[in-house]
Design goal:
By secondary structure, the protein is α/β, with parallel strands linked by helices. It contains twelve helices and eight strands. Helix 1 links the parallel strand 3 and strand 4. The chain is globular and about 45 Å long. About 45% of the residues are buried.
Amino acid sequence: MEANKIKGEAKSLVLDNGAELTYAELGKENEEVVVTAAFYFHTFMPVAELLARRYHVYCIIMRFDGITDQKNADGTTHWSRQWGTDVYDFAIKMGIKRFHYVGKCHGTNPGWWFYKNHPEMLIDFCSFFLAPHLKPQNSHHWADLIQEKDLSHMMAVALRNPETGVPKKMEEMASLGSGGLNMEALMYAPEPQNQWDSLEDCEADLRLGKVPVGYLFGSEDPLMADYYDSNMYAWNVTRGCHFTILQGERHLMEIDCPERVAYEVMSFIDQAHRFKL
């Protein structure tokens, strides 16, 4: 169990294929279910706790290793599809039939897997700070920051309030430790369009979508600028989507303003209930 990736009580579930998933469960007294997945739940946990005031929340760790069954032609694991399959197997084993999916950045990958493969299980889908990339990348600011290998500088650029946010992020990284990263898996993290065999197939499904999608971005998020054309295009082609840009917010807004992120989730869910695709 990867308990260090959860801030708070961590649980473990062994899937029928033998793979082990680590997760946290909040708001068990509530009926409606929110599922969210990520590489770790530390600085995002305040958002989950706020959602748990209203929803039964499952926070699932997206793993980098272990038993896999989603393979590419060359035998490597297609991690984007594996993460989605893991969450699906988790939901089936836990008896979760329908839910709201909330994903942030890399955590949107399972949501897009459900959007493509099992839309009947999604009530709605919050795809925050990341959309499928159907257009060429505009810039590489975020990748350049990563290449600098200065985590504090990279985090400062991603935060509106770095003086308080950077210590929280650095504490999170220290809790996680240095092990467990898998570059093969990380390659899939920012590319949810890889759920599909082609960009054309992805766009066709977005245009015919059966699930309400809520996009959220910060105007000062480096990744918003890096994929500006793709984000704007997703707004135009995703059937019935909601699209919100928060002025002045950056990529780590779950640290800067967790209350606002939780509010945007609940506001979207409330609106999505009022219209049918």
